[in-house]
Structures are given as structure tokens and as C-alpha cells.
Amino acid sequence: MNVTLPKKEKISVKAVIIYTISIIACIIALVVVALSYYYGSEELDRLITIGGSNLTQEDIDYQLLIANFDDIFQNQLEEYSLDLQIKRNDNTKDIVYTYYTKDETKENSYDLNLNIPYINIDSEIIKKYNDEIKQTFEEKAENVLQSENQNIIYSVQYEATIENDILSLIIRSNLKQASDAQRVIIQTYNYDLKNDKEITLEESIKNKQLDVNMVESKINEEITLAQRKVSDLKSLGYSIFERDPEDKMYKVENSKQFFIKDGNIYIIYAYGNENLTSEMDLVIV
Predict the structure, then answer these.
(1) Which has the closest alpha carbon to 172: 161, 190, 182, 187?
(2) E-assigned strands of 130-252?
(3) 55: pLDDT strictly greater than 90
(4) Global confidence as pTM
């Protein structure tokens, strides 16, 4: 008995092309919608105009600095050149070094990864810095070590630089305790080695020959954009820390957390310093 099978219907090349284009268009649409919710419409327009005049090399370099911020923290003082004679508390150690380190886990209680720095300079200002570092980071670590069944995750990282006789130190801690929201705390210390004094953000801006008003305008622009993203996410039901671009905390004179690296000034607004949040904003000039 001979059975004749039905012939397979051939799909035309034209149909394949149409189906493929339709699928790609759907994927692009979904990606654009997702990005617009995350970045906000204005920032998205700026980012996706790759071939146009809206995206300059300066824009690309800036976004790379922002994206690579987490990579800064290597728990070390970067290589430096210094002609000054610095009076150290311990001549056998560098100007900044890790003096408290711990990598320890206790099931259901805590998970610690700590690298806490010490500034090795004989100065009353530096003594105040070291006392504050100890109170903020080391004492918290000791409290965590005494905890039981609280499921605490706590890490501390830092990085230090010396550029143009300015010592700049940034310390970041991440704290997650039980069901509480993750909290990120960032502290910075900027010290004029030559003149034995603390240096402010305004002085750093002027040392870089930038205009303070221009920097404040950039800060306002970035915070306004960040709040626009918050509003977009809030409309989708997310609970995100809100910013007020008119808050005086964003004035240069009130901006205390900043870090100097490779000639760039990283101005940091870490809202976890005062609130239970991991949200932060970063402006680089």
C-alpha cells in the first residue's frame, strides 16, 4: 500500500523577512520602554543618539566614570609622588594603610568583609579623622561580631589618593540587617599635606580652575534628572528615595563628601549617611 504524504508548504523568503523584522521591532520597543522607565525620556534621548551631535566624547567619558565608580575601591593608597616630608606615626608603614581587616562568617548571624583604613600622619586634624573612622566603622564591626541570629551583612572598602599634595580618602560601607533595607554609608576625608589643613570642595573646585556656579548648575542638573527617574519609578509602584533639587544640601558650600582621583572631583550624595537607604547620587567635575 502506497501512502502519499502531503507536500510541505514552502515559506517564502519574503514572509521570513517580514516575521524577522517584526520580532526585532518588538524587542527594540520593549528595550526602549524599559530604558525610558529607568533613565527618563530626556536622558534616554541623549544616550541613544549615538550617531548624532547630542552624544559627545565628553558625554561618553563621563558615563564611563559613573559606571566604573564601584571599581575605585581597592583598599589601598594609590601610587603617588611626593616631595614633602610627612611626619608619620609609624615610619614603617605608608601614609594610608589597612589597619583593621576581617573576613568572617557566622551562620544566621553575620557575614563580614572589612577593610578599614588608618591615616598614618602625626596631626591633630588627622587624629580627629582616625577617631571618626574608628567610631563609624570599627565600632559597628565590633557590635556586629557580638550579634546573634540577626543575619547581618556588613562590608567596608576604601581607596586613597595623593594628587598635588592633597590626600583624598573615601570609605564606603554596605549594611544589610535582617529585613531592613540595605544602607550605604560613604565618608570622605580631604587633607592638604603641605599646609596641614582640611580642604573643602569649594577650594578643590577653584584649584581645578573651575567656576563654583558652573559646578552648582551641574549638580542641580544631575539631581533634577535623578528625581525625574524617581518620579517615573514611583508611578510604577516602586518606593525610591526622593530628592529635592532645591535643598540647600546640594550647594557646594554644604557638600562635604567628595573624592579626588585622576584630576576628577567626585561629589557624592550618599543618602544612607542619614537614612536607611542605599540610594546615592554622583556628580563628577
Answers:
(1) 187
(2) 152-163, 166-177, 183-192, 197-198
(3) no
(4) 0.80
